[in-house]
Specification:
Keywords: Dioxygenase, Iron, Metal-binding, Oxidoreductase. By secondary structure, this protein is α+β, with helices and mostly antiparallel strands. It contains eleven helices and 19 strands. The protein is globular, with a radius of gyration of 21 Å.
């Protein structure tokens, strides 16, 4: 799912979607004397819904492809004539709302029984962000039985007992080099996804209702219902049952894919962007269809329902440089929360909420 930033030079076997991914992906200038200088990218064809919103407010004008959706929402909702079922709500979340969900994405959403990409190696990890703040290290207990239960991705034996636990850094140093350990800060940087509500089984690509889970937090449910309204069939209300939270660091990508595991594609996926600005690609029903590129900023919301659920989409680039990341407002709000501030300056979080049944 996540890619690297190594350049590939041969386009002969690439689809149109992959060619566009490569066009916007982060590559470094190998000839630069400066360390890791990003190659320049032509962004002139990237759709900018913030600019469209400003133009719409000023004079009511929009580019030919962009339409305003008549849905009695509390702010303009835009669509694309060529992609029925796709909705873009620029600046849908206030700065306070963005900060709230950034905090929850780092502190609450990775908490067990929610699963993360770390479960497969370390089992369930509690209080990861608190451990980062306390500069702790995750250490393997060599006296515990080795191996993980592949069915639960938890620890063998008692689910509450794990081979790995957080310790003070000094106590780890005293154990010597034979002790297997990883710092909490590294684990946070390698956090790639967490799942809320009904748990998604990535190995089988379906929802496993037998896995332990908590319901999606009520405030997130209410927000998702409100945001989903423009894309819902008349007279129906969105029922949030699962969410996948994606975490992006510099150079990370989300390859072209379909979200096709839910039973009813007439219901939208509600996708909230937080943190650094990104480029989002929306293709067609085939990878050979040239995708449209658009900016996603913190606070933007995308809805994909109906025919749009059949369109390939992905994220080939996030911007972490000061000029393009556009995180200044968030940084001001997190000026007294250094660990979150350090994280969000160079990261993007995407919370996408789904009705499964």
């Amino acid at each position: 799912m996540y890619g690297s930033n190594k350049a590939v030079t041969d386009d002969t076997d690439r689809t149109e979607f992959r060619k566009t991914e490569k066009k916007y992906k982060l590559y470094y200038d190998q000839n630069s004397k400066r360390k890791k200088k990003p190659k320049q990218v032509d962004l002139s064809e990237v759709l900018d819904f913030k600019s469209f919103l400003d133009s719409y407010h000023q004079n009511g004008e929009l580019p030919p492809e962009i339409v305003v959706v008549d849905c009695r929402f509390d702010r303009p909702v835009f669509g694309l004539e060529s992609r029925p079922g796709f909705y873009f709500i620029p600046g849908a979340l206030s700065v306070d709302e963005q900060c709230r969900w950034i905090r929850d994405s780092l502190m609450s959403f990775p908490q067990p029984p929610n699963r993360t990409n770390h479960n497969a190696i370390y089992g369930p990890i509690s209080d990861l962000f608190a451990a980062v703040k306390e500069r702790k290290v995750l250490v393997e207990d060599e006296n515990m039985p080795a191996g993980l239960d592949s069915g639960s991705n938890g620890c063998i034996g008692n689910e509450d007992t794990c081979r790995w636990s957080f310790c003070e850094e000094d106590s780890v140093l005293s154990r010597g080099r034979s002790c297997k350990s990883v710092s909490a800060s590294v684990l946070l940087r390698k956090l790639r996804w967490s799942t809320l509500g009904l748990q998604f089984d990535w190995s089988k690509r379906n929802y496993n209702v037998s896995l332990p889970h908590n319901k999606i937090p009520d405030e997130l449910c209410q927000l998702a219902k409100k945001l989903a309204a423009p894309a819902m069939p008349m007279g129906e209300e969105f029922q949030p049952e699962a969410a996948i939270v994606n975490y992006f660091a510099s150079g990370d990508t989300l390859g072209g894919h379909l979200d096709d595991m839910e039973a009813d594609w007439s219901k939208p996926i509600v996708s909230m962007s937080l943190g650094c600005k990104a480029i989002f690609l929306l293709g067609g029903k085939s990878r050979e269809d040239p995708p449209l590129a658009m900016f996603l900023r913190s606070g933007d919301v995308v809805l994909m329902a109906g025919e749009a659920r059949e369109c390939f989409h992905g994220v080939p680039r996030i911007f972490t440089d000061k000029e393009n990341a556009e995180t200044t407002t968030l940084e001001l709000h997190f000026c007294d929360e250094n660990d979150i501030l350090e994280y969000i300056r160079t990261s993007r979080i995407n919370v996408n909420i789904r009705q499964v049944f």
